[in-house]
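Re: [help] complex structure
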Amino acid sequence: MNNKPKISRSVSLYSYQQPYYEGKLDLEGCIREVAKTGATGIELLAEQMIDDFPVITPAFQDQWFGWMEKYGTEPTCYDAFLENRIYDNRTLTLREQIEMMARDINIASQLGFKTLRTLVATPIDVIEGSLEYAAKKDIKICLEVHSPFSFNSTWADGYMRLIQKTGTQHFGFIPDFGIFCRDIPQTMRDQAFRFGASQRGVELVDEAFKERVSNGFVKIEYDLDLGRAHRAYLEANGYSKLMEALKQAGANEADFKYAGKSFTFTWNDPQDLIDNMPCIFHTHAKCYDLTPDYIEPSMPLDEIVAAYKKGGYTGYLSTEYEGHGFLNDAFEVDSIEQVRRHQEALKRAIEK
Amino acid sequence: MFPRQMYNPDSFANVSENGKIVGFSFEMKMQYYRGITLSIIRDIEVEVDGQLFPRSDIRFTVNQETFTLDEMRTVISNRWRFGQYAQVTVLTEGGLCVGKHHIKCTQTIAPSYMPFQLAHPGESDFVIEGETHEQ
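Output below.
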């Protein structure tokens, strides 16, 4: 008998946003495509694919569970957006934000999800104020650890202290594989050239990225002023130095844009996952460009999945294909094939 | 984000009111990956053949409701869905002349979790035919 903990596979329907946008796949079509890959989990951005959001009609609810049965799938993660600046003249009060979180917890529960993704900008006190309702509905609120944010940082520490202080089982984390990028996706580099980037400019950006990977990234800090946190992060990681070098080299606008985008990728050691594993309830297995032989060149998939196995993870790895934006200015995007390849790559890494 | 798929190519037309041409309109999708309340739309800039139209002359219609850009700042119960066409009407006397044109429309939105606003332009050639849409 095999007693090894089982990692399951899911797909975020976010992966199919290009064909959905073009009207080639509807919500049921997306679920059908997930089932074809052999994945059993469905992750959903309700705000992306539920027409009546935030209203869940009984008819929709029936249809949703009908699809789960028909395709042999189950809901995994509900991706929420705490729109706490829905008015442009103020931020929602704490009470209003907790109410918005409750609305999403409720929808997640109505549709059978087990985890709810909340974004990096979610204030700690909003989460603390939502724990009771999350427990009542048995939904785990999970903070997405999305590049350039990372585990084992002052940003993550505050949330970790909340878990320790309350002992809650209804709050944890969702790592996004974008924090494990050892290279900039080639499709993004190719796109920069299409937009007019120069050979020298791209080289300078790539060299600076390599340097960050080998020397280590300075981590972003907790700050509710996200703009300030982001500027400090850029500065600490050599942004100004790179921009100055590009200027000296006579770089063009496309070079500078490529340079800016390069700071959205970070490399963290996958071993970082292990200490945090008891609080990781779901995972965004981000991918950009899978080769026909199931390699994602920008990140070491086997090494990442090995860390999950070592840490005893029993949740879902949920494919989140995000390479469409590097292609759709010039090419047709085959999201269905990219997701299929990524699922195969995950399956192989899990079974290794 | 989706610059090639943004416009409905068949939607460009002059708009008339009581038989008089008062502007032109077109349909576009949002260059973002989820539906949003109109309140987080900060700007919609329309430039045709290099001419930028005043912000106050833009009208935005979605789900059978029409707003000015300033009015949209308080609209939290009308959502522009992901992949849904909304209609933009530009009030300009006489509309556009019949024939070929080029449009650049820039959508600026402010998702709460982003440290900066997103401004996504999309460009396209289009043709104005002789027929007009009566408002």
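The interface with chain A takes residues 1-5, 29, 33-37, 39-40, 42, 73-74, 76, 79, 81-83, 110-116 of chain B (CB under 8 Å).
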